[in-house]
Design brief:
Blueprint (H helix, E strand, L loop, with lengths): L13 H7 L14 E14 L4 E2 L2 E5 L12 E3 L5 E2 L1 E2 L4 E2 L7 H4 L3 E7 L1 E7 L2 E2 L9 E7 L6 E6 L1 H6 L5 H11 L21 H24 L14 H15 L2 H4 L2 H21 L18 H8 L1 H8 L9 H20 L5 H11 L4 H11 L6 H5 L11 H6 L16 E6 L4 E2 L3 E11 L7 E14 L10 E12 L11 E8 L2 E15 L2 E10 L2 E7 L4 E2 L7 H7 L7
Parallel strand pairs: 1-12
Antiparallel strand pairs: 1-5, 1-8, 2-10, 3-4, 3-9, 6-7, 9-11, 13-15, 13-22, 14-15, 15-16, 16-17, 17-18, 18-19, 19-20, 20-21
Length: about 575
């Protein structure tokens, strides 16, 4: 058995990683679940589904405090959303002969548990290609032989985590209209042949998209959550707990997502966040609202109450003939609405436009065209989220289809192994004492036909530098890094993709990222290829002059990296 060496992760952009220059290794808490030291290793295996989550961090939250502590075992999910073992490829990531790349997907603990919460955050939804926001959980009760296999973590199991007793579990399942066996049903492959369980998918999407928006708005106000040592990663756990109680009380999920019920969900979750602030002696922001005077809750409750009818319009829970391919475009359409809601700062009328568009039966031909377009490999959910869902660019089948595809100048990635790629932030800051110079060059190992492999990278991050050559905090003129790459959702005979998953080992920690090709752009008379990558759940755009090119000499030291990436600002 290989030792689990996966470290605590935060999903940040490469720029943010370098500027931070520190590793957050975990935080303390109370309420330790039952566990005992053991001479053996306890393995936990299963899959994570909203859509399938690739490169998510899955960990044993032994004290159920919402964040990974230094002593808590963790792993990443693979490209298919599995950890420890992938039944599709028959690869045991915890086997003695597992490679270093495979070991990052092994979740194993030197302490054995009878009851523990498995928690998941970060990563990328394979279905949408978008960063996963929030957390999902599952309360695991270990069977007699100590094995935990084939268990699914999903929005539905996250809601069930709030149930601690058999009576509470029964009440929750009854309110959701489910059986306990449904918790381990892969709703994207319910029969082993690719059939979608539309009822479970409808419930899962409704639950998590609602929780995502509710949690985001709370975390926007309580912005120390997930940033201050010892706080939960975000507000998701508090929102799931509060929503679970509303579901049981109302005996219906849709009823629990009506505004008056949502005021109570938000008020209860906010109270939990305020207690965290008080325990950490943090400065409390103004109270957002309460059930009798919703105040700051009114808008988010209004938006979230519109999510169930949109899900119902897109995912007919009574349609038993759907496949994953059929629902891909629908899930992406829903994601565009959620991105709008999460990004809203002032009242955005285009959210109402989107809700009206999806729930108006007369728009069926346009919705069909949009869903078909979003089902393709060249779908662009972010581009769609920027559309106002009205006007001349959204009133015909052709225009609707064009609103959701990557630019025609975006060339899919076919070959990666044996090539290199230099990315640059074209913003060089302001002289004399706010100069920026940020570049990264990747050197990808592997054969031309490989779908994954390892890489070496040179990272230059210079922030707020002075003309006299002094650098800002966390800056580096050239730092050697390494990691692994893999194509996300590669399809076709050429194995092409528009998305490249990256695992980066840098400054003593491991991070996950995604690279998305985004077409060509002419800046100051020079044509570049635009590349977007994840920045803590948001996509930033850098540029490359030549794209993927034949690999030259691979650096082996920081000094070599500095030579590879000379200063562009004369310092």
């Amino acid at each position: 058995m290989k030792e689990n060496t996966t470290v605590c992760v935060m999903r940040k952009s490469l720029l943010t990683i370098a500027i931070a220059g520190v590793v957050v290794t975990g935080c303390g808490g109370t309420g330790q679940d039952d566990g005992s030291p053991s001479n053996t290793v306890q393995e936990f295996g299963g899959s994570v589904i909203d859509g399938y989550l690739a490169r998510a961090t899955v960990f044993l939250d032994t004290n159920n405090n919402g964040t990974r502590d230094a002593w808590e075992a963790s792993a990443f999910t693979d490209n298919d959303g599995f950890y420890s073992y992938n039944p599709r490829t028959d690869i045991d990531y915890c086997a003695d002969g597992a490679t270093e790349q495979q070991q990052q997907y092994c979740l194993a603990s030197a302490v054995t548990y009878e009851n523990v919460v498995v928690r998941v955050d970060g990563g990328y939804d394979v279905l949408t290609g978008e960063p996963f926001l929030g957390q999902m959980t599952r309360r695991v009760e270990v069977d007699g032989d100590g094995l935990v296999t084939d268990q699914i973590v999903s929005p539905i199991t996250s809601l069930m985590t709030a149930a601690r007793t058999d009576e509470e579990k029964t009440a929750m399942l009854d309110a959701l209209g489910l059986e306990e066996s449904d918790l381990d049903r892969d709703y994207f492959n319910s029969d082993g042949s690719g059939a979608v369980d539309a009822e479970l998918l409808n419930k899962a999407l409704t639950i998590h998209k609602a929780v995502t928006v509710l949690s985001d708005k709370l975390t926007d106000t309580y912005d120390e959550i997930g940033e201050t040592f010892g706080t939960p990663n975000d507000a998701s756990a508090a929102v799931y707990q509060a929503l679970a109680e509303r579901v049981v009380d109302t005996l219906d999920l849709d009823a629990a997502l009506q505004p008056q019920q949502l005021y109570q969900v938000l008020d209860q979750a906010e109270a939990e966040l305020r207690s965290v602030y008080e325990r950490k002696d943090l400065t409390l922001p103004a109270d957002m609202g309460n059930p009798s005077q919703p105040g700051g809750f009114a808008r988010v409750a209004e938006v979230v109450s519109d999510i169930p009818p949109v899900v119902d319009a897109l995912i007919d829970e009574n349609d038993t003939t759907q496949t994953e391919a059929d629902v891909t475009g629908k899930a992406r359409a829903l994601e565009a609405l959620v991105i709008k809601a999460v990004n809203e700062t002032t009242v955005d009328s285009s959210i109402a436009n989107a809700v009206e568009f999806f729930t108006n039966n007369s728009n069926e031909p346009l919705i069909g065209a949009l869903v078909d377009s979003l089902g393709g490999d060249d779908a662009d959910v972010d581009l769609l989220s920027e559309n106002d869902f009205s006007g001349p660019d959204f009133d015909s089948v052709v225009e609707v289809a064009q609103s959701s595809s990557v630019p025609v100048t975006a060339v899919p990635i076919t070959r990666v192994g044996g090539l290199q790629l230099r990315l640059a932030d074209l913003d060089l800051g302001v002289a004399p004492n706010r100069l920026d110079d940020n570049e990264i060059e990747f050197y990808f190992n592997g054969a031309p036909e490989d779908a994954d492999g390892s890489f070496t990278a040179c990272v230059k991050i210079i922030s707020d530098a002075n003309e006299d050559g002094t650098l800002g905090e966390g800056s580096t003129r050239g730092e050697l890094a390494d990691g692994f790459w893999s194509k996300l959702g590669a399809s076709g005979a050429d194995g092409s993709t528009y998305n490249l998953l990256m695992t980066l080992n840098f400054l003593g920690a491991t991070y996950q990222g995604i690279i998305k090709v985004a077409g060509k752009e002419t800046i100051n008379g020079v044509e570049y290829q635009s590349i977007r990558f994840d920045n803590d759940g948001k996509l930033e755009t850098w540029h490359t002059l030549y794209g993927f090119t034949a690999q030259g000499e691979v650096p082996v030291s920081n000094a070599a990296c500095e030579a590879k990436l000379p200063s562009r600002v004369g310092i």
